[in-house]
What does this fold into?
Amino acid sequence: MNIIADLHIHSSYSRATSRDSNLPGLAAWAAIKGIQVLATGDFTHPGWFNLLKEELVPAEPGLFRLKDETTFPAIFPDVTTAPGPIRFLLSAEISCIYKRHGAVRKVHNLLYVPDFNSAERINSRLAKIGNIASDGRPILGLDSHDLLEILLENAPEGFLVPAHIWTPWFSLFGSRSGFDSVTECFGDLSEHVFALETGLSSDPDMNRLISSLDRFALISNSDSHSPSRLGREANLFFTDLDFFSLRDAIKTKQRETFRGTVEFFPEEGKYHCDGHRACQICLDPLETRRLDGRCPVCGKAVTIGVYHRIMDLADRCRPEHAPGSPEVFSLIPLAEVLSDIIGKGSTSKEVMRQYACAIDCFGSEFNLLLHAPLEEIQLVSPALCEAIRRMRMGQVVRQPGYDGEYGVIRAFEEGELELMNLERTVFAKQLTK
It folds into this structure.
């Protein structure tokens, strides 16, 4: 079956996370987005782990469903979403901070396991190393190599994926605390790492500039801290609905089963370019090198972004994708598309009203953004149709993010809708069911 999976999220037990990030709330938003498989996140936290055991029951092998599937909150009371299963897959993120080769390393790693017993064994080991109850994403003085060893010993059918591998501060290749290769990080256990998470500020084309990454599958996830942000990046599969089929599809990285990834336009990521947010300075790598890595306003060191870091390690001028590789779909989240058209903030009441109408009309956000025929969208709104056409073609306006500041991706230039004589209203009427 066709499956959309978001395999990196956080619960309400993680810092700076919405209190609505509970299992029913996550499941309700997954249905709105069109996601069938959702990572649980945070299984290392005792409180969240207990809730997972109380509220989930086994479904297909290695996957779980809500014990009471009638508890979905009504996000949009009058909206009907497309029918389909919502399944959970046990996951956790560990912040590994340790010294290696005379430098402090800060690497975030994702763990995936097929059952509660495996998770419980891992939690028992990690609790002896540090405080796993302090945060849903615990900070441990644990080498990434040793974390992988713990996973292999206690959950041999599970797998580890380095998270958002280019983020400057906390990642495998981060400019502030990372390594230059997977082998340098994981040593003799490197063969057990078969996938990397690209993160919001890079995409597969950027990663395929580096030949040493060719053997790895590239996955994309939302890293959501709020249910409404689920699916801003995601993975597309055509497999049986179970943990092992999804794992093996990632491992083989062939389009027959791992259909593709949904991506941010990488410029929207908040660490795409170099820069210094305090001085509102955004730089490309050539400018940064010319300035010797210093902010031209205050003289302090700028934060080296993802694009720069990839250019440092690249050994190709153009990306090379193996035959049959997963496809890549760069999308703008629907709320941002509507915000661009309506001219109001993406979380405003009017944008959310229009968003609800769009879901009611097209069944889910992903169905509208990825699959809905343009002729059908045209009947609803010529402006929305043109925005989605441009997005699908990659014909968008890009303002890159830097130093923790999100970029902005728009379908239209300022004032362009008026010049094109397109209405800013998408759905003129309220939902009346």
Notes: Residues 334-433 form one domain. The longest strand covers residues 87-100. The mean pLDDT is 95.
